Amino acid sequence: MIKAQARATAVAALALLAGSTLTACASGSTSDSGGKGAGADSAKVAFLMPDLASTRYELADKPLFVAKMTQLCADCSVIYQNADSDAAKQQQQANSALAQGVKVIVLDPVDSAAAATIVKTAQAQNVAVIAYDRPIPATPADFYVSFDNEKIGSLIAQSLVDHLKKEDAKGGILEVNGSPTDAAAGLIKKGIHSAVDPSGFKLLAEYDTPDWQPEKAQQWVSGQITQFGDQIAGVVAANDGTGGGSIAAFKAAGAPVPPVTGNDAELAAAQRIIAGDQYNTISKPIKIVAEAAADIAHQFIQGKKPTGETSLYNTPSQLFTPSVVTKENINEVLFQSGIMKASDVCTAQYAKACAELDIK
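Now predict its structure.
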């Protein structure tokens, strides 16, 4: 059996899921030609996620990673923890996992700089660290797996710029970045600037959103609406949470909602795109990175040294290419592909808009 134990302090729906124990069985062979590490058939792996502000970690990353580990190693154990945006808490969770004898830590850091301590401590005990989704620049992890975050930034921003030019929009752009302690947010920000800076549209203002909190994004955008009003032609938001917060700010102000970007293809973002409230998001199927991380973890457990397709921050890396989702291709990219189900997204409030896009 493989088990994943969760502790989380999210709202009731997420807390129930986060506190569950996931159990499954697999019949696949885990034999190797002599390259296994000690206890490879019953090793423990820590899966340490950063926050509850995004629903993805509880609803997607965790179960998908556990399922793949089950397939690869039926008797391995996955220790799951969520730090709820607290770097000190994540350090404690890592220390606890090490005390429990994990062979690999898969780490999506709350604070990319602070996570260097976790990497050093783990590596000193011959425990491999896989940086997941967010890189750890200061101290190289043993591997990094993610979608290409800089590419994400450039794609969402260029998509917005192209749309504004097509619509002959006037005015400037607001930029709502991710957390200043998240190195992935820095890469997304770099990608956004690569598209916005030469676009011809003035960057009115930008903001690094603490802990990616939608409420903080909403508060900041509210202030910018007061300052710039109808000069705001569009908003580049670094993820769906900050995008949703930005949209909420315009609605609360009673102002027209300009095109607003996102990233993560969350269910609520899909609904906003279908309804015409959000312009785009990024499809980066979590199944791809979760399963890749499990495969890499299993290689480390077996005593192998995975090689990356590229290198980032002196870390062997596997970076997957994301795709932009707008109203024009959402049916094909998210629904016809099977990533999302119409029954989940097209609730009564969105049924008419879904029908107009032939989403079924």
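The mean pLDDT is 90.
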